Amino acid sequence: MGLFSGLFGSSSNEGKEEKVFPWIPLTSIEQLAEIEEKSKTKPQLIFKHSTTCGISRMVIRTFTDTFDSTPEEVDVYYLDLHSYRDVSNETGYKFQVFHQSPQLLIIKNGITVAHASHGSINDMNLSDLL
Hints:
The chain is built from 6 helices and 5 strands. It has helices at 3-8, 30-38, 54-66, 85-95, 120-123, 126-129, and strands spanning 23-25, 44-49, 75-80, 103-108, 111-117.
């Protein structure tokens, strides 16, 4: 045990179960048509994330920590805005939302039924919307 771990606690993850989040990377414009089609049988979520924004990091951390739906109930897409700017732009056009980040879109039956940005994402009652 090092000096710092003794002072600030252990960095060991012993006994802690790490939650694996069921992200589906959204990396191509072609996936948007798939999301639209899949939304006819199961809700689709798109989380637009800015990897350089502290607010976005806080929101995504809270979102993943509190999310309790299963992959059988909903698909959750992760969109890195900086790496896939063209996909982000097309997402706004296709699903009729103004760009914000972070931003969560809920797609059902081919349309956006709800969306939120910043702290409002974690205020959404997803169970009512899905």
